[in-house]
Amino acid sequence: MPADAAVDRTPAGTTTRGAGWSAFRMGWLAILVVTVTANAWTLSSWSWLQDDLLLTSEVPRQGFAHFVFQDVAGHVFPGELLMSWVFTTLDPLDYTWPALSICLFAGAVVVGWGLAFREIFGERLHLLIPLVVLTLSPGATLVDHWWISAINVLPMQASMGFCVWFLARYLLRGRRRADLVWMNVSYALGLLMWEKSLLITVPLLFVCLLLGPGRVRDGFVLAVRTLWPTALVTLAYVAFYLWAIHDAPAGKPPVEYARTLGSAATLVASGTVNSVLPSLVGGPFRMPGTSLGTFPSSSGALALVLWGVTVVLVIVAISFRRRGVVALGMSAAYALISWGLVFFSDRFPAVGTILLGAARYSADVLPVVLLTCMFLVTRTVGEAQPLRRPVPVPALAWIGRGLVVYLVAVSLLCAVNSGRAWDAIEPSSTKPFMDSLVKDARALGRADVYDTRVPDRIVNPVLLEGGSHVSDVLGPLDLPLRFNRPTARYAVLDGDGHFRDAAVVGGQTNVAPGPDGPCGYAVNKGRPTRIPLNGSLFELQWAVEITYFTGSDATVSVRTDDDRVDVEVPRNKAGELGKRQFIVSGPVSALSVEQLSGNDSVCVTDVRVGIIQATDKSPARLENK
pTM of this prediction? Predict the structure, then answer.
């Protein structure tokens, strides 16, 4: 795409924004409808995931101001935290509102960038290409199906689009101050949602160079005069950001991937060949297994073709396009800064270059690259001499036809690969688990629950320790559940999100029979009874199940090597043995049991210390539903 593709060859200075329902506007509307509809359909089968649940679990634990203005692993996004607080407070763990917010922001990306392209280049059909790539590619599918990621990336993309639009309006329509005001409002809203929106200043600077006077030096003067209010907003936000993270603990990830010049080059090459360049032709083409997965590297043949075509087009663009070097510099500068932040983050030493296989790490780079491509192939509104050297009219006509074919091809590939991406990640949806968990938890009523961890695919306990237990996930619902208190039988969560009756399995049991004949081990007041086990257990959290009988309600104190638990033991029904389950921590080599209250001895007939496991039987309250 070496030359100017303004195949309508309108006279210099003519505005081609048009009126009425042009082909561009109908295509633009179609992309908007498809983007919002596709997201609404897929997100109806989605739910909370990983960090989403960490945030919702913190809402009832923290005050409003502390929650909204906290830093999260070095990130500051009060707008997103405000949304999380509102959703969780008004309708806890209902994913309808988060899904709706994703749809709205995805639509805002289409609107914002459609306005920007239309303002700068007029209404040309091939300008639909970047809108298709930006919103309907496989990368967008992955980004949109993790709320905490989507509400970072999509508002930033939308804010960038609106900022470019307002700046272009200012530069091309008489420099009205209102456009600058709205540009800075859009910028501030982007910063409110994610601190990385600071990078929006990079394309704004280059838009001044590309739409301003002919000489680069004059363009910089224009940028200074135009963007000084934006610089003040930036400085104010940086001060706020430094204040917000001033007490954040320094992360110390395991250092497996060293930061070297070679690893930096590999990171840039990986992001270019595996994320950005494939997206321009409808890719990536190898799908991850989950929404949190990474796109596998492109094949060697594809990488070679993409690099080769890119090098040729860059050379042609520099040779023919008057401001081609400036346009290419915009993408290069932005990508190096954006990926540089990844390179110097705490994640890189632990994960390495595979980070850029995750769509969210290049999602902000892509719109800048698409804007660059449009500057390389399209005459801007009012541009008199877009080319360094003349190109025959028939060649321009063929370029125009080629761009239409390219639009159709990219649209089809994006549709196919987005469908493949959804097919790949849909089985990892958390919705079945979360729906079952919430439904069963509400139906349990006042019940005793073992506070196990939810599965790793829901919340990773290594990365998100504070939000990985059942009590954390269900905390916003404010249910009358009691966790890890001694009880006759715990309800325990299974892998599908349902509650089941718990059994204590494995571990060690007492040495039977006991010394007190039919009573087993007689437990009385004032004298601890030692119950040996047939082995020792190392330091961990263990479940204990005792089987007993007694003539009256009693309370016993159970001691292990490092822990003590007071357990109420109600009188057992005639002809049946009573059971109590409870949790201890630390090593266990024997039990020491002493009666604290009750009129009759407590006879302990059996003891098991092991782990909690879900049985096939549902708690009685759930069976009756």
Answer: 0.88
